Fold this protein.
Amino acid sequence: MKILVPVKRVVDYNVKVRVKTDGTGVETAGVKMSMNPFDEIAVEEAIRLKEKGIATEIVAVSLGVAQCAETLRTALAMGADRGILVETDVDLQPLAVAKLLAAIVAQEHPGLVILGKQAIDDDMSATGQMLAALLGWPQGTFASKVAIEGETISVTREVDGGLETVALKLPAIVTTDLRLNEPRYASLPNIMKARKKPIATMKPADLGVDPAPRLVVVSVAEPAKRKAGVKVGSVAELVAKLRTEAKVI
Amino acid sequence: MPSELAEEHRMLADMVAKFVDRELMPLEKSVLAREAAGQKYGLTPEEEAPLLAKCRELGLWALDVPEELGGANLPTVALMAINEELGRTVVPFTFPPDSPNLHMLLAVASPEQREKYLKPYAEGRATSCIAISEPGAGGDPAGMTTRAVADGSDWVINGRKIWVSRVPQADFVIVMARTGDGKRHDGISAFIVERGTKGFIIEREIAMIGGRRTYELVFEDCRVPASQVLGQLGRGFAPMQLRLTVRRLQMGAWCLGIARRALEMLCEQARNRVTFGARLADRQAIQWWVAEAATQIHACRLMVMDAAAKHDAGVDVRTEASMIKVFATEMAGSVTDHAMQTFGAMGMTKELPLQLLAQQVRVMRVYEGPSEVHRMAIARRYLNDRK
Ligand SMILES: Cc1cc2nc3c(=O)[nH]c(=O)nc-3n(C[C@H](O)[C@H](O)[C@H](O)COP(=O)(O)OP(=O)(O)OC[C@H]3O[C@@H](n4cnc5c(N)ncnc54)[C@H](O)[C@@H]3O)c2cc1C
């Protein structure tokens, strides 16, 4: 079975995000970019399925600017077999991404698509679900455990109040939650091997998809600043402050 | 991290950064606590074993060793990016082998010596040290007086060495000694002396600042067969210098990591600490420290990466290495000092890593050649440029 893993290039999770001075978006110039952490979990899960002999090939896909090739290279260094880069400077929104991925699915015929449950930049949590709808495939979102048995994949989902397990018929869509696995480091030999793995590059037009945005970002603003905290020397002082200053007890 | 690195080397440095953050940083607290309690500064075998296993798994092994010896043979630029990441923590850990002698052995070891000493060393199964300095000759090692005299097919070594690092765990020591009548650099030879050789005495352990330890060694009629001569007789000085250039660039990379960490801590504290009704971050005194540190770190990284790239291209970068040795250690010294000052009393504690980082930088101004000697070398190079 072939597994398709979409990977998104986002501002590194360690970077403190700053709003552009003109309020049109988030500053990315000179900022460290990395693979969306949930997508790393998706790549890891695909590799584990390959190591178990369930998957035969892992194809990583990234959509966006040319530098997304670096994100693909990271996926290849972790263990994906080849990459597809859909290159565009257009601001890609979830529906456009889902349509592009649906077109790639039509070409590649994967048995499973594993996506991150959301990207840490815009936190939309929409692409996986939209892709499932476009393809008419079953979906298991927010997965904390997956197991494949024949033509069925059972997905344990993290839902409010506990865990829910659903059984889906393959082909299916899975989106990953944080606890699904701990992604491996790309080892030095695998980083070197990744150089030789192929990346195919195409444009949205090659897939017959118009990626133009359908939502307009009106403005982007910083959340209100938190006031600096204070350190207290003792529990007694804390209690006193809660009583007299915060007036909460 | 420098942006001009090749993609795979950038990924590698990223991986090492993760290794440092996830595997080494969590050990820092216990390493610091032990050192503060007067115990040995280092990792326990229980802490070290899983790290070494992880390194094997990730291929973080023999990074600068040639491929024919099973190494990764990384270019200097990649090694620098890796060492910068390692410099960020006081947890004493390097990817094996710790290779101060690698380049010398590679250059001059005989086929038998390659098999017996270089191979296990390159594979990380053996460790070694080098004894150059003497009580009367350190910054100017050409003044050494330890002597080896031929006796039949053997050599008999007599003399005293000091400040030698890594002695207790070393399987062999490379000892530099006079064998000829030559003056200064001439007539100095290198010998491989195995641990336990009769007449090779570890006289005493010397506690140094920065948690380090060095050793004074005595050679008393220490007899070794002629097969232990490393390289050409009387021409040991030049190969000994081979390791120094890369080592000095590496020290520049460590200083970058140390300074980055100190600046990060300084900024964190400056953002949080309020005095006289304002954050430290809002005071110009502190802002200038930040600006100066960031600027110097940037300059230093450019120096290190420039020299590393030239070295990879086969250019002699001895002068650049001297410049880096001087600039990097003084830069990191001032950044760690400002970070400590920003923390006030907390900066003076042994609970923070800053004091150890600062002491390690302080020590770096002496070993591998004191700053003044490097300044002399740089100046000579320029003063003697024209007739
Ligand atoms: C932590 C540590 C580890 C070490 N590990 C080793 C090791 O493994 N093996 C080994 O052989 N050695 C080792 N050394 C020794 C080190 O290489 C020497 O200490 C160093 O070269 C300086 O020599 P010295 O101590 O004799 O100082 P000296 O040569 O006496 O110099 C003392 C001071 O004099 C000044 N000075 C010297 N020459 C000049 C000049 N030309 N112009 C202006 N000023 C000058 C400098 O300020 C210098 O700091 C280590 C040292 C330290 C601190």
